[in-house]
Amino acid sequence: MTSQEIVQAELREDSSRGKNEARRLRASGRVPAVVYGAKKASAAISVDPKQITRILHSASGHNTIFDLELGSEKTKVMIVDWQYEPLKGKLLHIDMKRIAMDEKIRVSVPVHLTGEATGVKQQGGILDQVMREVEIECLPGDIPSSIDADISHLAFGQVLRVADLPHGGSLKFITDENQAVAHVTSVKEEVVATPDAAAAEATAAPAEPEVIKKGKQETTEETAEAKK
Predict the structure, then answer these.
(1) pTM, to two decimals
(2) Which among 21, 113, 159, 201 has most CB atoms closer than 10 A?
(3) Is residue 72 included in any domain, yes or no?
């Protein structure tokens, strides 16, 4: 989805790319960012975090295409990555990609289900949505904020698949079209133990303890600086 938002950017000098300079930049009300793509050199810039937050909280979120104004040059861009400070929730860094409006791109969009399924309303089943977003390919101007699917026809035991989702224009699904998005299933019955069964279980010999082996967890930290 294309926005009328124009984000004013300022070029950062090579000497202002260290951690200390980034902190000073944030203290002044700006946030470091990088823009790249469209067969052009990447540029280290700074932007107003309020504008970026407004875009991220819009209906189309990070899939929003907007104008980035740097000096006399105005370019269509999209936010592809961003970092928040975990405690205060402040933006720390943003990555943006230049967008050519006549070239198809791949993005993930949320799937919203509308209506009440027949299998729930009349047959007593429960709706289980197993897929919350799908990957699509389309022209930038055709990116939807979401894909809304009417499930009122969905009966007990029926499955809504990716291929059943509404789509048109230049939009093509990259996610496997046979994958399930939602289905109506039966309510799971909770087994309640009787007093006799509970007593028998209490006197039974204790089972051997289960040994759960956990692999070593590794985490990596990425430094969000200008991509060359």
Answers:
(1) 0.72
(2) 113
(3) yes
